[in-house]
Amino acid sequence: MVDDAKSPAADQSPPRDWVILMGLATATFLLHLAAITRYDYFRDEFYYMACGEHLDWGYVDQPPFAALMIHIVRWVLGDSLFAIRLLPALCGALVVSLTGVITRELGGGRFAQVLAALAVMVGPVYLTVSHFYSMNCFDHLFWALAVYTLVKIIKRDWEKGWVWFGLLAGAALMNKYSMGFLGLGLIAGLALTPARKYFKSPWLWLGGLLSTVIFLPHVIWEVRHKFPTAEFIHNATLYKNMPLSPLGFLAQVALEIHPLTIPIGLVGLYFCFFAKEGKTCRVLGWIFVAALGIFLMTNAKAYYLAPTFFMLFAGGACAIEGFVERHAWHWLKPASVALLVLGGLITLPYAVPVLPVETFIRYEDFLGLHPGSGERDKPTDLPQVYADQFGWENQVAAVARVYNGLSPEERTRTLIYCNNYGEAGAIDFFGKKYGLPKASSGHNNYWLWGPQNPGADMVITVGEKPREVEHTFNQVQLAAVVVSPHARSFENNLPICVGRDLKMPLKEAWPRTKGFI
């Protein structure tokens, strides 16, 4: 197990290798900076900022890490698009370089390191996740760091590394539950390979204890709030996520990872399970198999599988490099790199908004490729990740016109209620500019925060049709319809209503608004 680690590529990487990897990482970072303000804020960015204003040990749809980080970012850098998207861009760059470093640790030389790093650099899902703020950018970074640590533990028999792995796993779980899938795969991988010897190591159990202690405050929060995240996951699986067949799921994965990088990943899977050179990373193969099996059984979104490919790209690049060297097919090196770069340039406009919106729509129509949202909503002329960056301030301005059209006495009695956290978050963010109070919503954690004007007996609703508002108010007026052509289907032709004469006290009506999905 240690003999493989003595190869020159694994022990020490030449300075030029580091320069190349840092160059790819820097190019990724600069690409995001170049397009960082081309479109507007993303729906979830408003919600993360709202959560950051209500720091807690957990939220209906996420652990606390991402909310804490955006709170810190806004305190240090402000809340401009550049400020809140700086960390995601940095995470994306680090993941590119770490994938190359993992490849080096597996014995890969310069070409293998570049090939693996480039596979991540051109992958649409990795570029997309690194373009805007969400817990996913941190999730990818935690996965890359965890895989790197795991490879070092197994390849170098570094038992004390389990402590570092436990710290990483605990922090990662406080960001997103998906690190748990790595943990489940790790248990299976250790049990099914010679690495099972680590079950006897006190360092492994110490690492597990550390991760548990780090994650415990969130578990306590879940218990205190009657496990809202379990309800959220259940509802999203049944009612929100688009059901896919196993083949449909894998096809979606291929599109999001990039069709040209899938062969590298498949070779990497072979490398992990069957190649002699990959005997030290059998555990990595089982992590991928376990995660894939779980996602196929739970109607998960395809992008959830993305971080498992870091290790497959690393193993695949090592195997391809070995094949090239054995057969002296050196022409494959520049050819494969050129092919990845070309393929990445073709799909780049789908992942990062390098094109003006109208130009992108023409480009999309030319290619005939219109990605779905993975959710049960009507398609629009833009991919979901772009459509969710349009129409927000337009909405807030329309709400402000309705709100300011009320008498001063009515405004004190009015609650602004939004159908989802994107609409509520946009009002919370842009509302100061327009003189609006904080918004309320029954969507996810907004429901837990409760109505922002508990004594209200009037409402301005955003995104609810008049007949829906009539369930709670005797007098309902359609005050405006907001047109946002490039927004999601349910954010275009958006009704804004005014409801008067509440049929029941707000305290009784509020529980009915709950929507964890």
Q: How is this structure best described in words?
A:
The chain is mostly helical and 517 residues long. It has 2 domains: 8-358, no CATH class; 392-513, no CATH class. It contains 25 helices and 5 strands. A 5-stranded mixed sheet has the order 2-1-3-5-4.
Give the helix/strand layout:
Blueprint: H1 8-11, H2 15-35, H3 43-52, H4 65-77, H5 81-105, H6 110-122, H7 124-129, H8 135-156, H9 161-173, H10 179-191, H11 202-224, H12 228-240, H13 246-257, H14 262-273, H15 282-297, H16 309-327, H17 332-351, H18 357-367, H19 384-387, H20 392-404, H21 408-412, E1 414-418, H22 421-434, E2 440-441, H23 445-449, E3 458-462, H24 466-469, E4 473-482, E5 494-502, H25 506-509
Parallel strand pairs: 1-2, 1-3
Antiparallel strand pairs: 3-5, 4-5
The number of helices is 25
Overall mean pLDDT: 94
Strand content: 5-15%
- Helix content percent band: 55-70%
User: Rg, please?
Assistant: 25 Å
Question: Helix and strand succession?
Answer: HHHHHHHHHHHHHHHHHHHHHEHEHEHEEH
The neighbouring-strand order within the major sheet is: 2-1-3-5-4
SS-based class: mainly alpha
- Assembly state (oligomeric): single chain
What global shape is seen? globular
Question: Runs with pLDDT <50, length 5+?
Answer: 1-10
Beta strands, count: 5
Q: How would a crystallographer describe the biggest sheet?
A: 5 strands, mixed
Count of structural domains: 2
Straight-line N-to-C gap: 46 Å
What are the salient characteristics of this protein?
single chain, mainly alpha, five-stranded mixed beta sheet, 25 helices, 5 strands, 61% helix, disordered N terminus
